[in-house]
Design goal:
This protein has five helices and four strands, in the order βααβββααα. With 165 residues, the protein is α+β, with helices and mostly antiparallel strands.
Length: 165
């Protein structure tokens, strides 16, 4: 699973098929797109709330809470500015992670580690996984039908939000 995703407002609505237009609906979209124990996320906040004059905002959500980050608005149009912002966020996040490791463990904290998690708290139980596979293969159910049948989101079941083409 990814560590960070950085959807803009359109992408945040597209992933869980919602329409984030206010701060409340944006947070609801994040909740739908973010499974329990999911990674950190940064999303474009433009148009979802009214930032102060001369500022733009970005919503950042992780296990520790929700923050709205504010920066001065530059009065010109630049293609790719959202990508630059996402790259800066990701670089800061990753640099902070490595600095914490160094502060905690010294040079040993900088040694490469296996990328396989030691545990997977959101991993589905084997019986539930077998049930999902059976529903898809034997009963020919779509991901959407399986989510409805299992009442996705009510019991921590996290399935892909979009069906493969």
């Amino acid at each position: 699973m990814e560590d960070i995703i950085t959807p803009n407002q359109f992408e945040l609505g597209y992933l869980p098929r919602t329409e984030p237009g206010s701060l409340e609906s944006t947070l609801a979209s994040v909740d739908i797109a973010r499974c329990p124990g999911a990674p950190d996320r940064a999303g474009d906040q433009r148009g979802t709330a009214r930032p102060p004059e001369g500022a733009i905002e970005m919503l950042a959500v992780d296990d520790d809470g929700t923050r709205i980050l504010q920066t001065p608005y530059l009065p010109f149009r630049a293609n790719g500015s959202g990508d630059v912002t996402s790259a800066q966020f990701t670089a800061h996040y990753r640099t902070s992670k490595w600095k914490r490791r160094y502060d905690d463990l010294g040079e040993l904290g900088l040694v490469d580690r296996a990328s396989v998690p030691g545990r997977s708290p959101t991993q589905l139980a084997p019986a539930l996984m077998a049930q999902i596979q059976s529903m898809g293969r034997k009963q020919k159910m779509t991901a959407r039908q399986i989510r409805r049948e299992l009442r996705w989101g009510q019991e921590g079941v996290c399935l892909p939000l979009r069906e493969s083409p």
